[in-house]
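Tutorial, part two.
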Amino acid sequence: MSKFPENFLWGGATSAAQIEGGRCLDGKGLCHLDYVYFRGPKTPCNFMLKKDYEKAKAEEAILNFPNRRGIDFFHHYKEDIALLAEMGFRSFRMSVSWTRLFPTGLEETPDPEGVQFYHNVFKELHKYGIEPLVTMIHYELPIIFVEKYDGWVSPEVIPHCYRYLKFLIDEYKDEVKYWLTFNEINMVTAVPWLGGGIILDRHGEFEMPKDFRPFGPLPPEMADRWENASHQALHHQFIASAMIVKYAHETAPQCLIGNMFNLHHLYPETPSPEDALRAHQETEFNMFFCDVMAGGSYPKWILSYYRKNNINIKWYDGYEEILTNGKVDFISLSYYLSSIVTADPKRQERIGSFIRTLHNPYLETSDFGWQIDPTALRISLNELRDRFHLPIYIVENGIGAFEEPDSEGKIHDDYRIAYLRSHINCIADAIQDGVDVIGYTPWGCIDLVSCSLVSMSKRYGFVYVDADDFGNGTYDRSRKDSFYWYKKVIASNGEDLD
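Running the prediction step on this input gives:
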């Protein structure tokens, strides 16, 4: 008897910004991710400073913007969905591009060709019995809201966003059952440009330090801007999410709406009480995003944190009632790694940071420095069960690697199989612990443009796409070894992991 429920939603995950391409076709506009340019195969790109944005605008004709190409899913979607069906997918996580429907974000009515494109994609998925899991906003923000306002820091974004979200429910409610509002909503506090369209040094007279590290210590002026702007943007995203959840519950009760956050399990570096307290505090910070979206209110401790750190939120009118009436139906999460934290002020990293530098000697490390820890996923799933008592959908998990076909055109990705096998085993154990896990969609099931590096070099997929960081290649698709392995996993409902 399988450890997984009979109707378990096996599948894979992508995002529009990283796969679609077709940036100017059918009237599609540009979002803030379209201005992130390639800076090297191992150079993080998603921290946008004023000089970077000015460079992107001034040199738009010559810089390399991989997100604008994606993997050309726009033209390959039938072929790609057929490959997912061959693996036996029961669920496909994708996102809808705001600017394909509302090119500038300010339009009152959507572009009809963009509307039809997603109807076509959903029809193709249903042809194979694949359930779409749709992220409404996978980071994408129309560029006008960066230029005219200050990204999600401004409440002016909310009515335009709500019009877009309301349209999604009205138009596609009979084709899509499972929805997520914001992808990894906590990343706006970790990476303000990526999650909120916020240029950190856009306002103020402070200068960025020459040795600036996105996850390291910050000068006081920048720390103040970072904290205030990112948490204000987060507040507005909470509001937009709750508003559309309430609307969907009232008008499309057949739809289920989830939140989505980046789960980051944290261990204390030592058994010292101070390290244990620090790990607890940071875990509470990671969980508070779900507290608001699933519990319907801000926990008292985060309000105290705001006061202590001079974070001044301009509360949206009636926000308490909006949050109470807009609680999500299930929890969804991405999980890639665990980290350790210390109370030592000389080595402490910012609360809410995603990538940590302290090394856990008990864990293996990927080529990109991410420590591999499937047991932490089981621990966290149990914690989420006890805290929220809601179904849980694991909508991202996986390992990125540099990959090139061998002389026979094959990719033997045993490391990916080993990574996923260990995590699937721990998910099975969590289900036996009593956790209601309803689905699993590993990230980048077809190779796509990496979010952190904005490159094709870092690959996650079961399917290889012949394209490089500069857009060269045939864009042909081919099956990796993990393709056949995952097909067997799905066919056995998680029993055959050999």
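The first helix runs from residue 16 to 19. In part three we will examine how such features are distributed along the chain.
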